[in-house]
Design goal:
The chain has 30 helices and 18 strands. By secondary structure, the chain is α+β, with helices and mostly antiparallel strands. Strand 12 and strand 13 form a beta hairpin. It is flat, with a radius of gyration of 53 Å. It starts with a helix and ends with a helix. Pfam families: GGDEF_2, HTH_18. This is HTH-type transcriptional regulator YesS. Keywords: DNA-binding, Membrane, Transcription, Transcription regulation, Transmembrane, Transmembrane helix.
């Protein structure tokens, strides 16, 4: 049988095996995803780091190159240099040329001090084939011998650079230092304009490559790869290594991508990062061997593969072990259940499904049996409680024995009866579809019974019985904590009413009897609850009604009605409409005192009086146009709280709260109406002032004082009103109108600035120009020029 179950196509063994394999592959897949994500993140971090370091290199070097360009600018526009190159002085006084050249050389020594980052500079004069250096002047041959002579940089190359036309930029060069050693240098070459197809002169400013590399050698990128600086012609100006650029290096890619992969002809692989200087157009390039670049990624890849291999080997061994171990209990259960339920030899099946079907079948049989027993027991117990409430118990059977039979305990001293009548259940029935009305009603009774018994049993003992359409609950109270029995019954009733209304939309009327001290008084308590329920149904509403609260009012009907004459109602209405809270409270207090002096009016007339007062309140809101915005609309439960009040004092408190809200609303309504009237008057005044300014802007005497006099108001007060409404003062408004009118006058060609100024009320042209520039941002003369263009 074991082999049959294991090789069964639907066996749990196959399901477990697939599950274990999926669980085993899950960390492998997660590991692969982590590897891919970490590889991508690492690449981005390396790229960002290299890009950041290159930007640091660019920032450092751009400052150096900016100093070279600044020095070139100062040399080019030096007064003495300009005179030397462009004046005709030396045609008349040729002997002054050597002296002036020497003076320029002396002035260059000042530049040497001002630019300590510059290693060397000079000006090559093409006309007399000489070179001006700081403090000295040399011939071109001697200058080449002392400054650049080397096999790598022949005289012909230097001469072609010095005579190049229309060139300004950076190139690589060699120079001889103060220690007579040959040094690589970056030179900034700038030629002067042509004369006879040759430049007049050429500026040469140099910074040694060692100085450049010294500024960036502490950066991490310097140590990991090769850092190069190229000019626009892709010539290497500076390099962190002695090697040259690969012959097959794709220079075209530098303008297309900031980083790319490159493989040289010799098989070496590189990762290239580059950025360009927006100022000098130089390219800053980092070339890093791929082996260095991907060293961390390779380490992570190896760790990932190793962890996957370990997971697969270990998981495979554990899968086989747990599969055999976990299947043995299942096999034994199937063998046990198969004795009661036959298994067809040719049928494939799942072990768990077989066990589940066998257990479900057993549980269904037990549940059916238990449900039938419980239903029968509940019906019998309900009949017993009903007979106990009505006093119709069979005297032959002792009560104690009957209680034991139905598992009931009534061993406390205080007894009471609560009746529950459903007032409104349409919403509950609408939620239940495809069910007969009789079944819906049974479900409602079942829910109410269980909720009530649960609430009562939290502290006491309670048993519910169905009596026609009413549910009756026999409550055996336990009051060791010193609380009032009546308060406890009211608490239970309120909790039941609230819970059923909010959860199931079941609304109840609840009647509570007096508390009695012996089980023999239960029939009397049931009659008291019925009396309270009858009185409640006559009154209407959804209140919780205690019998001892209603008893004093059952014989107090006042045939003369209640006090609330029409004159008092009109006074009350006027006080509410004008928001006079104190007057409204005084009138309400007088009405309540006159109605409740002595024994007071009945409950029925009390409700009529309350409705009359509420009607007056609603009239006041309707007269002020606020019925739809009133608190009655926003607080629909306000009237319910008033009608559900338990005492006259509670009703008076609810009315006082309503008066406070209504008076606050009507007072705010009146204040808002006054504010709108004031705003309209202010708007009309502002419009009149604007019209007056439009009509009198040409008057030179037009000012704030004149406008205030015209409108019979203080000038400062009128200006403040105008500014509060418009956002600008009267004087600013006058100036803006005048400037707008002057702009129209300036459009005429025959109109001058002075004519425009006098034409709009300015008697001082300087004041007009100052105000025009303040408003428009330019002078009227410039404005007129713009119009003419």
């Amino acid at each position: 049988m074991r082999k049959k179950l294991i090789f069964n196509g639907q066996s749990i063994v196959l399901t477990w095996l697939i599950s274990y394999i999926v669980i085993l592959l899950l960390p492998v897949v997660i590991g692969l995803l982590l590897y891919v994500e970490s590889n991508r993140t690492l690449k981005e971090e390396i790229q960002q780091a290299n890009d950041s370091l290159l930007k640091q290199v660019r920032e450092v070097m751009d400052n150096q190159f900016k100093a070279m360009e600044q020095l070139n600018f100062e040399i080019t526009w030096n007064v003495n240099v300009q005179e030397l190159l462009y004046s005709n002085k030396y045609e008349t006084y040729p002997k002054d040329l050597p002296y002036d050249t020497y003076q320029i050389a002396k002035s260059f020594s000042m530049y040497k001090t001002s630019y300590p980052l510059i290693d060397s500079f000079y000006v090559y004069l093409n006309k007399n084939q000489s070179v001006i250096l700081p403090t000295t002047v040399r011939s071109k041959d001697f200058a080449y011998e002392t400054l650049h002579k080397s096999d790598d940089f022949p005289f012909s190359s230097w001469q072609s650079i010095m005579t190049r036309s229309n060139f300004k930029g950076f190139i690589p060069m060699y120079r001889i230092g103060d220690d007579n050693s040959l040094r690589k240098t970056v030179a900034y070459i700038s030629t002067y304009p042509f004369e006879h197809d040759q430049p007049l002169a050429t500026n040469v400013i140099m910074i040694d490559q060692s100085r450049i590399l010294g500024a960036i050698q502490n950066m991490e990128i310097f140590n990991k790869g090769h850092v190069l600086i190229l000019n626009e012609q892709n010539q290497v100006l500076a390099s962190s290594s002695e090697g040259t650029m690969p012959v097959d290096f794709p220079y075209a890619n530098l303008d297309q991508a900031t980083n790319f992969y490159f493989k040289s002809n010799d098989g070496e692989k590189y990762e290239v990062f580059n950025i360009q200087s927006p100022r000098s157009k130089l390219k800053y390039i980092s070339i890093m061997p791929s082996t260095t670049y991907w060293q961390k990624a390779s380490h992570i890849r190896n760790l990932t593969y190793l962890s996957m291999l370990i997971s697969l080997l270990g998981g495979g061994i554990l899968t086989f072990f747990f599969l055999r171990r976990n299947y043995n209990p299942v096999r034994r259960l199937v063998h046990a259940f198969s004795k009661k339920q036959s298994i067809e030899s040719s049928k494939t099946y799942n072990e768990f499904h077989f066990i589940q079907e066998a257990v479900d079948s057993t549980l269904i049989e037990m549940a059916d049996f238990k449900s039938k027993v419980e239903q029968h027991r509940h019906i019998v117990r309900s009949h017993f409680v009903e007979k106990l409430l009505k006093g119709k118990l069979d005297g032959k059977i002792p009560i104690a024995e009957a209680l034991t039979t139905f598992d009931m305990k009534l061993d406390r001293k205080e007894f009471a009866v609560m009746l529950f009548v459903t007032d409104k259940s349409e919403a509950f029935f609408e939620r239940i579809t495809n069910t007969p009305d009789e079944e819906k009603w049974k479900l409602l009774q079942f829910i109410v019974s269980n909720v009530v018994e649960e609430l009562v049993s939290q502290r006491h003992r309670g048993y519910v019985a169905e009596i026609e359409d009413t549910l009756a609950c026999l409550v055996n109270l336990s009051m060791e904590d010193g609380h009032s029995a009546k308060e406890e019954l009211l608490r239970i009733a309120e909790e039941a009413q609230t819970f059923l209304a909010s959860t199931y939309d079941i609304h109840l009327t609840i009647a509570i009897s007096n508390v009695n001290e012996h089980i023999s008084s239960v029939p009397q308590a049931f009659l008291e609850a019925l009396d309270a329920m009858t009185y409640k149904l006559v009154m209407g509403g959804h209140e919780i009604l205690a019998y001892n609260d209603l008893k004093p009012h059952t014989h107090c009907e006042n045939p003369s009605g209640y006090y609330y004459p029409m004159g008092v109602e009109q006074q009350f209405l006027n006080a509410l409409k004008f928001g006079e809270l104190s007057d409204a409270r005084q009138i309400l207090r007088e009405v309540m005192e006159k109605n409740y002096e002595g024994s007071g009016i009945s409950v029925s007339l009390t409700k009529c009086l309350m409705m009359g007062l509420v009607t007056t309140i609603m009239k006041s809101l309707n007269d002020t146009g606020g019925m739809q915005e009133s608190f009655f609309i926003r607080n629909p439960k306000q009237l319910d709280r008033l009608l559900n009040a338990k005492t006259v004092q509670d009703m008076e408190l609810q009315l006082d709260d309503m008066l406070t809200q209504v008076c606050a609303y009507t007072a705010a309504k009146r204040q808002h109406a006054n504010s709108i009237t004031k705003q309209k008057a202010l708007q009309q005044l502002v419009e009149q002032v604007n019209t007056y300014i439009e009509h009198n802007y040409t008057d030179v005497n037009l000012n704030v004082t004149m406008i205030g006099s015209h409108f019979d108001r203080k000038a400062t007060y009128l200006s403040k009103l105008f500014k509060d409404y418009v956002g600008e003062g009267l004087l600013d408004r006058i100036n803006k109108v005048r400037i707008e009118k002057s702009k129209q006058l300036l459009k005429g060609k025959e109109q001058s600035v002075g004519d425009a100024a006098y034409g709009v009320g300015f008697n001082d042209i300087n004041a007009f120009i100052r105000v025009f520039k303040k408003v428009e941002g330019i002078t009227p003369g410039k404005y007129k020029e713009m119009l003419e263009k």
